[in-house]
Amino acid sequence: MAELINDFDKLFTVNTKITLIVTNGDYAGSYDSRVEDFDRDGSILAAMPSSGGIPVPLIPGTKAEVSFMGPDSRYRFETAVLGRVKTGSIYLLKLRRPEQLERNQLRDFFRVSTRIKGSIALFHPSSPGEKTSVPYDSAECTIVDLSGGGCRLITEAETAKGQHVSVDLSEMLGKGQVLHGKVIRTVRLEGKNQISVEFYFKKESERNQLIKYVFKRQIELKQIRG
């Protein structure tokens, strides 16, 4: 469950990498940015978002969400574009400062529905906790929902709770994108297996690409639903 935090100045500092999510309008999308400075009135001055190397012209009044990784959790807040500020020869995006931050524990990632084809590989460690580098079996699967922490998929493969698996997410994240994890739940459903997988990440930066896809998918679903 999300928790409201008041320590904005301690958690949100210059050079913090952020994801700026715009859910409506011609420039709906998810953009990487960074906190460059703070204006005299406390407003946030962030690097101009871009798409394909071209600056995205977000107009004043555009509502957005900012997400960033803190020392122990992911944080988010609602904001709005206030305008642009020129510093030397560079324009910065001016964003409204929030009253509070919302902290989400790493296990509480937002989940989106998908219908993406992939594959699951099964590993059979020779001793508890050991991860082998070569899978003993693999099967096609359909990923039916996804979050920054894991996924739920449908497959004919037989797995056990706690088993080490890998899921090929090349269709959504690009060629060769395979994430490892463990099975946390398996249910027999209409002749197939519905498997919930919790992903392993060595560091949070590895999770960011997946989170960006989830944000993108969230925007797509909102546009479809109107």
From TrEMBL:
Residues 105-215 form the PilZ domain. Residues 14-98 form the Type III secretion system flagellar brake protein YcgR PilZN domain. Transmembrane segments: none annotated. InterPro entries: PilZ_domain, T3SS_YcgR_PilZN. It holds the Pfam family PilZ. One of its GO terms (molecular function) is cyclic-di-GMP binding. SUPFAM superfamilies: PilZ domain-like. Keywords: Cell projection, Cilium, Flagellum. This is Flagellar brake protein.
